[in-house]
Amino acid sequence: PRYVALIPAAGVGARMRADGPKQYLPIAGKPMLRHTVEAFLSSDRIAHTYVVVSADDPLIDSVVPSGGVTVLRCGGATRMESILNGLQALRDTLRDDDHVLVHDAARPGLTAGLIERLIDAVGDDPAGGLLALKVVDTVKLRGAEGSVSTVPRDGLWLAQTPQMFRYRLLRDALAGARDPAAVTDDASAVEAMGFAPKLVEGHPRNLKVTLPDDIRIAEMYLAATDP
Ligand code: C5P
């Protein structure tokens, strides 16, 4: 089975308060999405990279390199819908047991080293797996009635991407999700089917660029060496 990357890049980046979609904002002299795509192109484990954008995206062709990348113009209204549309567009291209690494365009700090760490750690596990970070802060929960309590952080992880699953499992999990709004990552849909995806230690450099200041943090990590 092959390993392929699927990058949803059809968001509008509302929290970034920028002029255009955040995946095109310049980071260290290049559009964010180009850094993200190049991480996969630099790994010899990845057979092909697919990018999902909206049908009317005017910028994508100037951003993706010509070899090894295919653009799918089938973005949807939500992240989950964009991914599901991408998977459906690939039904005659991918086999059921191919591994799909879904990775947010907004995480440009990914490296070939982290991709390989995920692939090696998950191995043949049918449940797949994802990069994640152990929670280091003390976690508070504010209840609806104004109560505040402390959640034991033992066993708590923050999900990153890539999240890697067999093609068929991922498509079935997303297509069958009962509450699409609750599917904020791919693993949650797979967990709802009774699987326990493997949590693989990620790295802070793989942060999701969400707020304006995150750009400078991402640039600091991009200037640093591959973990
Ligand atoms: O906005 P957020 O950072 O949560 O988006 C995560 C990823 O999902 C981004 O790469 C974004 O482009 C993508 N996305 C998408 N289609 C949408 C919404 C978000 O591909 N409708």
Automatic annotation (TrEMBL):
Site (Transition state stabilizer) residue list: R15, K22
Keyword Nucleus part of the UniProt annotation: no
CDD domains, alphabetized: CDP-ME_synthetase
Site (Positions MEP for the nucleophilic attack): R153, K208
GO molecular function: 2-C-methyl-D-erythritol 4-phosphate cytidylyltransferase activity
Catalytic activity: 2-C-methyl-D-erythritol 4-phosphate + CTP + H(+) = 4-CDP-2-C-methyl-D-erythritol + diphosphate
Pathway this chain belongs to: Isoprenoid biosynthesis; isopentenyl diphosphate biosynthesis via DXP pathway; isopentenyl diphosphate from 1-deoxy-D-xylulose 5-phosphate: step 2/6
Function: Catalyzes the formation of 4-diphosphocytidyl-2-C-methyl-D-erythritol from CTP and 2-C-methyl-D-erythritol 4-phosphate (MEP).
Protein name: 2-C-methyl-D-erythritol 4-phosphate cytidylyltransferase
